[in-house]
UniProtKB/TrEMBL annotation:
The lineage of its organism: Eukaryota, Viridiplantae, Streptophyta, Embryophyta, Bryophyta. It catalyses: succinate semialdehyde + NAD(+) + H2O = succinate + NADH + 2 H(+). InterPro entries: Ald_DH/histidinol_DH (IPR016161), Ald_DH_C (IPR016163), Ald_DH_CS_CYS (IPR016160), Ald_DH_CS_GLU (IPR029510), Ald_DH_N (IPR016162), Aldehyde_DH_dom (IPR015590), Aldehyde_DH_Superfamily (IPR050740), Succ_semiAld_DH (IPR010102). It is found in: Mitochondrion. The active site is at E264. This is Succinate-semialdehyde dehydrogenase. Keywords: Mitochondrion, NAD, Oxidoreductase.
Amino acid sequence: MAFAQVGAMVQLKNMALFKSQGLIGGEWTDAHDGRTLAVNNPATGEIIANVPFMGKVDAQKAIAAASVAFQPWSKRTAFDRCKLLRKWFDLLLENKEDLAKLMVLENGKPLAEAIGEVHYGAGFVEYYAEEGKRVYGDIIPSPFPTKRMLVMKQAVGVVGAITPWNFPLAMITRKVAPALAAGCTIVVKPAELTPLTALAAAELALQAGIPSGVMNVVMGDAIEIGAALMESNEVRKITFTGSTHVGKILMAAAAKTVKKISLELGGNAPLIIFNDADIEIAVKGALHGKFRNTGQTCVCVNRILVQDGIYDEFAAAFTKAVQELQVGNGLEAGVTQGPLINEASLEKVDKHVQDAVSKGAKVLVGGKRHSLGRTFYEPTVLCNATDDMLIFREEVFGPVAPLMRFHTDEEAIKMANDTEFGLAAYAYTENIEHGWRVAEALDYGMVGLNETLISTEVAPFGGTKQSGLGREGSNYGIDEYLELKYLCLGNIKQPFMC
Ligand code: SIN
């Protein structure tokens, strides 16, 4: 496609948000060697922008800029930082249509979901603007009459944030907002597939008055940029959302410079529907929990375990609901399911379905590529799924819902916990005592009881086992960007006795 045509289909109210350069030290910047990377619309295959394909040298410049900005930023008061973050929040919401449109164009998600993501993403900025004011320390009762002991919390330093394509805004603000509120500066590497929303958000951060170098954005060669972040002694913290495979590589690499690290990795979420569930509520929950973002979230339901007393009734009602989903270009009215992000994702989804069918699963609806072509896949329900199928073990990351039958509570909990992942799990029952015991037994970082939409800035998001380390969101999330400093005051004289 001719250069002039690229970007022509991106019509925003505020074209200043359509950025196609990286941001280093407050300057919009090309890659040092001029390389570029095409950003595609997964719904149409069109190239919507060419952005710099940056590498190690560019990442090192961004780290240097973040290091220079760290002292002045961390020395400001939390109240001062709050004002700027709050302004950023306002600008994100004022520009929500444009941000959402960029997201649909580069990610494919339906417009209504993209608008929802702007609210979700901006929520982290609003929340942490205030939370920065509550970074309290402690005074420890001293065991020694001549000593006083205190703990203060200080910004960890320069942060490297590596974010995924499935939430092009929210996964950035979920990291940047607590980092900046704590007094850290940051180098963000957004996914190569979806850099445009990140760049627009960075432009709004500049417009909000967040100083140059506090937030930098570099994208391109993931290996080179990752290496620069991991090798740098100045980068004191890495925060990553993505696959367990890459998370393990980062964790090993962090050892070289002993960096603080938080990881939000893969999941394999079970949804357990007991005989005592309200079937109508459970069908809605399964639909939202499975098909959000066309099944492309780490907390998406991956396995639906249904007790035999309601299995057939649930399967029929759920299949009917899935048949009503509208597949198409996310900018078209009424569309609820967009394309998958790329051909590799489509192939993986199809492989899981073929594998399940070859091992005895039955397709109730869907089960193949959509007639729209490209990376569209039919929303799919499979029944008779079993634990020897790939879909039981691996995250499908697509619009496929396998139903498995169980008889007893113990069997369901055993199946649910039979995975190396531990991000989110869900259960439906109308009996609160039953639900409470089930929630306690699930080895997961997050449990939704009669609810599958659990993500919010006010609650701690994160997993156990190979789903990661640390928590994002809530009052706990800011701790990931803080170091504790113990201060001992010695030689305190006898207390006044008056
Ligand atoms: C993710 O898929 O990594 C995040 C999902 C969410 O925030 O709900």
